[in-house]
Amino acid sequence: MSTAPERRGPLIAWSLYDWATSAYAALIQTFLFPAYFARAIAPDAATGTAWWGQTMGVAGLFIAMLAPLMGAVADRGGHRRAFLVLLTLVNVLATAALWTVRPEADFALRALLLAGLGTVVLELAFVLYNAQLADLATPARIGRWSGWAWGLGYVGGLACLLVALFGFVQADPPPFGLDPVQAEPVRATFLLTAAWTALFALPLLLTVRDPARVVAPSNQSLMRAAFGDLVVSLRRLLRDGPLLRFFLGRLLLIDGLTTVFAFGGLFAAGTFGFDERQVLLFAIVLNLTSAVGAVGFAWFDDRFGAKSTMVWSLVGLLLTGAALLVAPNAPAFWWWGGLLGLFVGPAQAASRSYLAHMAPVAQRNELFGLMAFSGKATTFMGPFLVGGLTAASGSQRLGLSVVLVMFAGALFLTLGITSDRAARPSR
User: Fold this and answer.
1) Taking the mean position of all CA atoms in its chain, how far away is CA 373?
2) Alpha-carbon distance 49 to 41, whole Å?
3) Which tens digit of pLDDT belongs to each residue from 263-283?
4) pLDDT for res 427
5) Residue 190's domain spans which residues?
6) How distant, in Å, are the alpha carbons of 151, 165, 215, 335 from that of 342?
7) Which site among 52, 100, 304, 422 is 20 to 30 Å from 361 CA-CA?
């Protein structure tokens, strides 16, 4: 845990990395690129959606397998910054290369490989990025910086999305002589995303240095030694009830949130007749309120602890989620959806600050790798259950009630974790 006086410059650079990389999440993983792939490259929209889902599923599998090992290698080798630079660079290059994906079926494999590669390396980079928090912030302000950065990430993704939409996709005429027939205004947004990531990630990559190595050198190869460390840690984790509950609770939380974001638009369209513009506006509102919640609860985190923040966020998700599912009309859906977003950001930001407090220094990267694993291992479960229950019952409301069960399970598990208050000295 960092005991040196807090230095604002490195912390601001660290927070900007969230702003930088959220552009990829917004444009490449969620909004523009999947739609471009399904409409312009794949044989038809249904096939494109299936191929995209399968690719992201495979990417999630790679992330789940590699993230804990990536963290163990960084702990053992002491080259966290070098790995972070390399992974970020690969993401930027893969994103920029998406410009070459023209609206032709022959480019489908290239599109999926580049998007899958960019997703995997960015998630691995986030393992190392998250682990830096405890080295930079003082213990009394870890929750604050985690929440601020998480909120900044939501805003950064939306900011880049708005620049892409109004500066390129909907610009008439397109800038720089871009040819709409070849989808160049849309493809240019992939270059924008790459440049955005590189520009705003640069302060962190240039200013932050590795901490002193805390894992003793070994005569074994780095990879073999790191794998041995990981096996030992996994065995220890299975015996550590509270920490295991934390990871399992986070698994259910992320599954629930993934399902909300995946099916929220479908629910709005099917139940309340939202069109594409209204769905996009709802997504913007949800991201904005999530940002407000992440920033607003950051002080609560520092004052009352990450465990309390996670518990109250899960209570909020349960109550607003239940109200959302029984909303009688569109205005009520807008209202409860916006309120639900207030608890999305702090639930995630507090899990980062909790582990930053509780992880031993020698295992910090490794445990953040396991946190990434818990966020990817079963993300298929929520959509699968919602789809099956909706098909069986014929009701979107009943199908999405699975999310409430996940939030309730996450709350039950989180109530049993060790409090982090002892690791938070007063300022």
Assistant:
1) 12
2) 11
3) 676 677 777 877 656 766 787
4) 44
5) 8-138+156-208
6) 11, 25, 39, 11
7) 304
Residue 25 CA to chain centroid, in angstroms? Answer: 8
pTM of the predicted model as reported, rounded to 2 decimal places: 0.79
Q: Which two tokens stand for residue 316?
A: 């909020």
Residue with tokens 């000295």: 425
- DSSP for residue 79: -
Contacts of 138 (CB under 8 A, 6+ apart): 2, 3, 5, 6, 427
H/E stretch holding 65 reads helix 45-77
| Integer Cα distance of 68 and 374 in angstroms | 10
The answer on 293 and 192 residing in a single domain is no
- 215-218: list long-range contacts, CB under 8 Å, 24+ apart: 215/75, 215/76, 215/78, 215/362, 218/76
Higher-confidence position of 235 and 406: 406
Contact 277, 332 (CB under 8 A): no
In a domain, 217, yes or no: no
Nearest by Cα to 190 from 178, 181, 202, 203 = 178
Q: What is the pLDDT of residue 201?
A: 96
Per the CB < 8 A criterion, the answer to whether 188 and 99 are in contact is yes
Binned at pLDDT 50, 70 and 90, residue 75 comes out as low
- Under DSSP, the state recorded for 213 is P
User: Half-sphere exposure of 26 toward its Cβ, with a 13 Å CA cutoff?
Assistant: 31
Q: What CATH code is carried by the domain that includes residue 200?
A: 1.20.1250.20
Give residue 182's identity as a one-letter amino acid code.
Answer: Q
Do residues 146 and 353 lie in contact, with contact meaning Cβ atoms separated by under 8 Å?
yes
CA distances from 53 to 103, 367, 376, 418, 426 (A): 19, 28, 14, 36, 46
> Taking the chain, what is the end-to-end CA distance rounded to the nearest angstrom?
15
Tell me the pLDDT tens digit for each residue of 348-360.
888 888 888 887 7
Query: Is the pLDDT at 103 greater than 80, yes or no?
Result: yes
Scanning 78-207, the segments in alpha helix (DSSP H) are 80-97, 108-131, 133-136, 142-164, 184-207
Q: What is the pLDDT of residues 185-222, one digit of tens each?
A: 989 999 999 999 999 999 999 987 766 554 545 545 55
Residues 40, 128: one domain?
yes
CA dist 205 → 157, 199, 210, 224, 263 (Å): 20, 10, 11, 27, 36
* Pair 181, 310 in one domain: no
123/290 Cα distance (integer angstroms):
20
